[in-house]
Amino acid sequence: MVTLHEGxxxxxxxxxxxxxxxxxxxxxxxxxxxxxFYSEAGSPTCTxxxxxxxxxxxxxxxxxxxxxxxxxDDENKQKKFEIKYKLxxxxxxxxxxxITAAYGVRDMKKLFGREYMGILRTTxxxxxxxxxxxxxxxxxxxxxxxxxxxxxx
Length: 153
What we know:
Layout: E1 14-17, E2 22-24, E3 32-37, H1 44-55, H2 57-62, E4 65-71, H3 75-85, E5 91-93, H4 98-102, E6 106-111, E7 114-119, E8 122-126, E9 132-136, H5 144-151
Parallel strand pairs: 3-4, 4-5
Antiparallel strand pairs: 1-2, 1-5, 3-8, 6-7, 8-9
C-alpha cells in the first residue's frame, strides 16, 4: 500500500535500465519526472499505459517532463518491451523490488480468487527538487498522459 503522500520527498533510488545503464533519482535533479510503476512488461493494461505515455512523449517533454518506467521485470524483458512498442524512455528493471518497496507500490493483489504479492500501478510526478507533486493511484491507462497534463494546467 502506498504510504507516500503529495508533498513528501521522493525516496532516492538507483537501478539499471533496459540497456544496463545505471539510473538514479539524482539524474533527474532540476527536472520534472513522471515515475510510473507497472506490474509486467507486455501485460495488456501496462502496455496500453506505456503506449499512451509514448504517444504523448513529445508533448510531455515540451511541458518539461521526463518519463521513467519501473517494473520487477529483468533487463532483457524490459528491452524486448522497449523494442516491441518503440518506447522512447528508460525502463528500470527492479528485480529485487527495492524501488517498488521504497515507493510502497508492492502489495497483496487478488486475481480469480487467488492472492499474490504484486505491483500496484501507480505514478508519481516528482518536481525539480525531488518533491512528490502528484500521485496517481489508479492511472487511466488509455489517457494517462492527458490526466497528468490536466492536473498541471
